[in-house]
């Protein structure tokens, strides 16, 4: 292989973050429970304008119409909030004392409270954030050689009810605000020893059900005056809601990952109720029509569940199903957890499944597992908050995955 080819391949890898098998290990999957919004005394409503989460255009609008200043003050605020991670107007030394005093009176830059931060011995950090109403969500920071990936949540809980997913067990509570979505990034960056290079929307919740906030915040994350991430470094994982998927394709260029997890309609419906609404066949058709900027591929996520969908015949069906879709497959051996009966397949079955896909020329990677010692892998987050884990009689606790 020539040097030029080497470079191309390197470059492609770099531009398709979801090609990294380690990426999804940190998928929050999970069920932080959840606290109760009523468990705190109601604070008096704070009339100050929340700046965290605003786009540059919104901050410029705020500067002119609320602050009564020139619009460049908005750009200054944008830099302070997202690039320098300031939450105190007094730090904003390129603004006069008078402007800062005005800001103090009418605006605020909120922080998420760090309820817990767990450090894995492989460098992974799992954050449990407490929101202003006492609810909790998680993010996971994943250091790799060439990347620093942050997995973020988009909702408190999830309404999709996938049978294998621990988050689903706690139900849905509410969408995250724009400030809470970007707040995860800004605050996790404070813990990172390098710049966060990649964001994956693979934590709690279904991002396409919080579509406006997700699209707007990921646009803001791409602004060079702020976090400055390329759309190639941001990946949204969805269960595959077809109308919202089409809207995402029209409005955003970020990478798409789709949780398929079955190779037939019946197999998918058995573990994912959404398949009764948006059938796998329609989903595949929508993926074939999905607008992909040059060179991008859709990532198909496929959880491997022992005895459920891990047979090589499933692999043959999956490979045929994906014909005509510009896709690569990310196999996710199930992360065992105390809240479901599902089990990760044996390694030889995982390999056999992968080999079948590859024999069709399907680009396939299998997720590595990191962060297990702090329960940061898929479906492990927040498990410690769940009240009553199901007990598995006569079965030794396996700690390899959770
Ligand atoms: N709602 C979105 C994103 C959240 S979950 C979606 O459905 O894609 C991100 C990924 O982790 C999904 O593919 C999900 O199916 C997977 N996941 C959930 N629990 C898991 C577990 N215990 N082990 C492995 N993967 C899991």
In short:
This protein is an alpha/beta fold and 402 residues long. It has 2 domains: 21-40 and 111-374, TIM Barrel, CATH 3.20.20; 53-108, DNA polymerase, domain 1. Helix content is 31%, strand content 17%.
Topology:
Layout: H1 3-15, E1 49-50, H2 56-66, H3 72-83, H4 97-106, E2 107-108, E3 113-119, E4 125-130, E5 136-143, E6 148-151, E7 155-157, H5 166-169, E8 172-175, H6 178-189, E9 198-201, H7 211-222, E10 234-238, H8 242-251, E11 255-259, H9 265-271, H10 280-289, E12 298-304, H11 312-321, E13 327-333, H12 347-359, E14 364-366
Helix pairs in contact: 2-3, 6-7, 11-12
List keywords for this structure.
402 residues, alpha/beta, TIM Barrel, DNA polymerase, domain 1, 2 domains, two-stranded parallel ribbon, 12 helices, 14 strands, 31% helix, 17% strand, elongated, binds S-adenosyl-L-homocysteine
């Amino acid at each position: 292989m020539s040097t030029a080819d080497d470079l191309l391949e390197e470059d492609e890898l770099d531009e398709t973050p979801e090609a990294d098998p380690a990426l999804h290990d940190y998928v929050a999957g999970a069920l932080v429970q959840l606290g109760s919004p009523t468990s705190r005394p109601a604070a008096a409503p704070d009339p100050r304008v929340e700046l965290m989460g605003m786009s540059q255009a919104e901050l410029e609008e705020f500067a002119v119409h609320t602050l009564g200043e020139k619009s460049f003050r908005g750009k200054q605020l944008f830099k302070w909030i997202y690039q320098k991670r300031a939450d105190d107007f007094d730090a904003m030394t390129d603004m006069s004392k008078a402007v800062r005093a005005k800001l103090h009176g009418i605006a605020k830059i909120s922080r998420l409270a760090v309820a817990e931060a767990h450090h894995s011995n492989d460098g992974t950090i799992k954050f449990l954030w407490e929101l202003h109403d006492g609810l909790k969500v998680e993010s996971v920071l994943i250091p790799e050689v060439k990347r620093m990936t942050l997995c973020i949540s988009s909702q408190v809980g999830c309404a999709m009810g996938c049978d294998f997913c621990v988050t689903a067990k706690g139900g849905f509570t509410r969408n995250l605000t724009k400030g809470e979505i970007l707040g995860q990034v800004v605050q996790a960056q404070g813990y990172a020893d390098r710049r966060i290079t990649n964001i994956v929307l693979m934590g709690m919740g279904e991002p396409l059900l919080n579509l406006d906030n997700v699209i707007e915040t990921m646009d803001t994350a791409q602004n060079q005056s702020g976090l400055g991430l390329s759309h190639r470094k941001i990946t949204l994982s969805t269960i595959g809601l077809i109308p919202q998927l089409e809207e995402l394709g029209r409005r955003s260029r970020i990478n798409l990952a789709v949780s398929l997890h079955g190779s037939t309609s019946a197999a998918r419906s058995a573990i994912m109720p959404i398949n009764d609404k948006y059938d796998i066949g329609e989903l595949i058709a929508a993926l074939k029509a999905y607008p992909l900027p040059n060179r991008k591929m859709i990532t198909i996520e496929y959880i491997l569940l022992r005895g459920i969908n891990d047979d090589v015949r499933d692999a043959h069906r999956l490979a045929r199903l994906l014909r005509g879709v510009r896709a690569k497959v990310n196999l996710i051996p199930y992360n065992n957890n105390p809240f479901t009966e599902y089990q990760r397949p044996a390694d030889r079955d995982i390999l056999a499944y992968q080999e079948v896909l590859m024999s069709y020329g399907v680009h396939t990677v299998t997720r590595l597992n990191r962060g297990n010692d702090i329960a940061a892998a898929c479906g492990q987050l927040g498990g410690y908050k769940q009240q009553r884990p199901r007990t598995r009689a006569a079965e030794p606790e396996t700690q390899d995955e959770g």
